[in-house]
Amino acid sequence: MTNFKEFSGVCILAVVLFITIVIAQPVQEISQVGREGASYKTRTYSNQGPVSDVFAYPNTHINTGNIVDDLIEVAYGQVGYYRQEDTNTKYGIWYGYPEDAWCAMFVSWCANQAGVSEAVINPFFRCANEVEWFKDIDRWREPEEYVPKAGDIIFFNYNSKVANHVGIVTLTDDSQIYCIEGNNDDAVNVTIHAADAPYIYGYGIPDYEAAAPAKAQAADGSVYRMYNPDTGEHFFTTWITEKKELAKNGWTGEGVAWLSAPGGNPVYRFYNPNSGDHHFTGDSAEAAALVMIGWRNEGIAWYDGGEKAVYRLYNPNAVTGTHFYTSSEMERDYLVNLGWINEGVGWYGN
User: How far apart, in whole angstroms, are the C-alpha atoms of residue 191 and residue 175?
Assistant: First the structure.
C-alpha cells in the first residue's frame, strides 16, 4: 500500500491537476431533473474540457449507506462529463475497455463508487449481456408490465434486435421516466423519456434490500476495536453485527475503543480495494483526495464530538494497517517510541 508520504504527494498532484482543469474552463449551469417530484432544479457543474485526464469529474459524493441514493448521487456528480473525439473515457479506462462504447461502463462505475455489491449490479460493458444476467436471477421486467422506480437500470433498443443503451432511473411520474445516462451524445446527461416510449427495452431491478443486511448498532455509541492477527491491521466499527462477523473470520475483539457522539461532524470510512486497508477521517479535503486516487467511500463510520481526544498514528513501515486510532495517551506514547508517527487528534469522542 502507498505510504503516507507517497499518498500525500499523489494527493497534492491530483488536486493540482484537478484545480488546473477546473479553473481553465468556464463554469456552466446545467438544468437537471430534480428527484423530488417531476420538477427541475439547477445545479452548477464545471465544464472540465477534455476528459482524457483520469481526474476529470472525480466522485466527491460521500456514501451514506442508502444504496439507491448513493448510486443516484454519484451519477448526478458526473453530469456534464463528456468525451472529445478520439479520446478515451475514464469509465472505459477503469473497466478495461477504454475505446468501447461506454454507457454500460458508466453505470458499472457509478455502482462501484456507490459501494453497490457486484451481486446486485453485475459490472458490464455490453447491455445485452446484462439483460441476460438480470433475467437469469429473475430481476428483469418488461416495460409494458412494470412501472420503474429510482435505482432501476433502464435498457433501450435503438434500431437493434437487442438492448444497446442503458441508464439509471432517478425518478418516474405517471407519464415520464427521468434518467442519467452515459454516452448520451458523447456525454453524461440527464434525460426524460415517455413511459410508453417504444424504444424502452425493459428494466433490470437490482435487489438493493437483499444487499443491505440488517445491522445492529451499539446503542451507547460504542466503537469496537478489532485486530487481525494475520495482517496486523486494526479495524473500528460501531456495528455489533459487523464485529461478530469479523470475529467469525478470525479477528480478535479488543473491546470498546471509545464512545462516539450521537451527532456532530461525520467521520468517514474508506476502503482501499488494492491493499484491503481501511482509513478513517473527518477531514473533507482528505476524503475527496482519497476518492480521487481510488479509495472507496463506505459512508459515515461515526461522529466527531465529545471531550476525549482520539489520536491518529501512522506506521511508515506497514503495508496494511498503516493508521491506528486510540484515545489512550499512554498507548499513543508507547507507539511513538516504537517508531509510529503521531499525526495529532483525529476527532473527539467520549
Answer: 14
Separation CA 149–CA 76 (nearest Å) = 16
**DSSP track, 154-185:** EEE-SSSSS--EEEEEEEE-SSEEEEEEEEET
If DSSP states are collapsed to H, E and C, what string results for 33-76? Answer: ECCCCCCEEEEEEECCCCCCCCCCCCCCCCCCCCHHHHHHHHHH
DSSP 188: E
The tens-digit pLDDT sequence of the chain (350 residues) is 444 444 444 343 443 333 332 322 222 222 333 333 222 222 333 334 344 445 578 887 877 778 899 999 999 999 989 887 777 888 988 888 888 899 999 999 999 888 888 899 999 999 999 999 999 999 999 999 999 999 999 999 998 889 999 999 999 987 999 999 999 999 999 999 999 999 999 999 999 987 655 556 666 889 999 999 998 899 999 988 889 889 999 999 999 999 998 888 889 888 888 888 899 999 988 887 887 787 887 778 899 999 999 999 999 988 778 899 999 999 999 999 999 999 999 999 99
CA pair distance 339, 192, nearest whole angstrom: 58
What are the domain boundaries of the chain?
Answer: 4-211, 222-349
| Residue 260 contacts residue 223 (beta carbons within 8 Å) | yes
SS3 for 258-310 is EECCCCCEEEEEEECCCCCCEEEECCHHHHHHHHHCCCEEEEEEEEECCCEEE
The enclosing H or E element of 253 equals strand 252-259
pTM summary value:
0.57
The phi-psi region of residue 314 (left if phi > 0; otherwise alpha if psi is between -120 and 50; otherwise beta) is beta
Burial bucket for residue 116 (CB in 10 Å: 0-12, 13-18, 19+): buried
Written as nine digits, the cell of 309 is: 481526544
**Whether the Cβ atoms of residue 106 and residue 183 lie closer than 8 Å to each other:** yes
Backbone angles phi, psi at 32, to 5 degrees: -125, 140
Cell of 33: 431533473
Q: Are 195 and 159 in contact (CB under 8 A)?
A: no
